[in-house]
Each structure stands twice: as C-alpha cells, then as structure tokens.
Specification:
single chain; 6-stranded parallel beta sheet
C-alpha cells in the first residue's frame, strides 16, 4: 500500500511508483486531495496519468477499500510524502481518512509502516509524534539523501531516498549501488 499526502515531495512518490517491479508488486494507492494537488504542482502531471499498470487508485474517503481491514493481506504501507497533519493523526490513532486507517491497520497487524515525513524545521510536537509512531512499530524515514555516492543530478538524490524505502520492504532495485569504499577516492586512504 502507498499513501500520498499534501506535503512537498511528490518526486519521491513518482519515482517509487515507477521503480516498483510491475509483475511482482500490486500497489494499492490512496492520495489525499492535497496530495493530488501537490503531486500535480511538483510533477506537472495528474497522478491518474502516471499510474503504472500494477496500481489501483482509491479515494481518501473510500473506507470500503480492502486494505481498510486487517483481514486483507499486504506487505505493509509507505506514506510518501507524509504531511505533519497526517503523521499527527496516525500517531494519535485518529482515522480521518483512508490513509490514516490503512496506517492504523498496519500498526495493529504488526506490518511494516514506513513514514516519509516532509517538513523542516521540526517542532517538538512533530518530534513527539514521530517518537510515538516509532514506539508503535513504524519506521520514520526522513528524505535525507546521502552524498557519499557523489550525486550528479536531482534524480540521484531522489533515487537515494526511494532506494531506502524499497530496502525497508526488501524489494530489489538498482536505484543506487550499495556503499563500496573501494569505489570512492577517500582522502588519506590508498585505494
């Protein structure tokens, strides 16, 4: 499952959707209305136009979606990007929409829940909500790209974060190479 909320960060969602193996992973995607708006603003495309063949799109109001129940098997959920409003609702058990409910189902069923929060700077409330979610079993994966792989483009930075998301679900990818100190010239070290 995948949720997209109204925080900035649509390139992460877009790259994740494009990178999932279409014959191996069925994506149940739910977006908030603000998530759809931000996606279109940041990518220039409506989410409906970019859905891969393995994805089914749900309204945030559709509480009859199969994954609104713990009896529907999933490999977990990622919310990318995740607004602080959605993060706060999930951390406090408030299911105002299908994204919140699906996240709650993952927590109660002990399934992976990966939250990719997009806000800076963070206030105390944000941090407490993240801690509450981490204590409940969620993985908090802020989109903080590394630079040790010497990124050359914006896509390199986005791919780094999306690779970390896919790693959480053990989905193979070729977005970034694993760290190899022999492939990088490190000052003061002979290669």
């Amino acid at each position: 499952m995948m949720g997209i909320t109204g925080a900035s960060g649509a390139p992460y969602a877009r790259t994740l959707l494009q990178s999932l193996p279409v014959h191996e992973v069925c994506v149940h995607l739910v977006t908030s209305s603000a998530g759809r708006l931000v996606y279109e603003l940041e990518t220039g495309q409506a989410i409906e136009r970019e859905l891969p063949q393995n994805a089914k799109l749900y309204s945030e109001k559709d509480f009859t979606a199969p994954f609104a129940s713990g009896s529907f098997p999933t490999m977990g959920m990622v919310i990318v990007p995740c607004s602080m409003g959605s993060l706060g609702a999930i951390a406090n058990g408030i299911s105002q929409n299908l994204i919140h409910r699906a996240a709650d189902v993952c927590l109660k069923e002990k399934r992976p829940l990966v939250i990719v929060p997009r806000e800076t700077p963070l206030n105390t409330i944000h941090l407490k909500n993240m801690l509450s979610l981490a204590e409940a079993g969620a993985t908090i994966l802020p989109p903080m790209p590394g630079f040790y792989h010497l990124p050359q483009t914006k896509d390199d930075l986005v791919n780094f974060v999306v690779a970390r998301i896919m790693d959480q679900f053990k989905i193979p990818h070729s977005l970034t190479a694993p760290w190899n100190p022999d492939a990088v010239k490190i000052p003061g070290r002979e290669n």
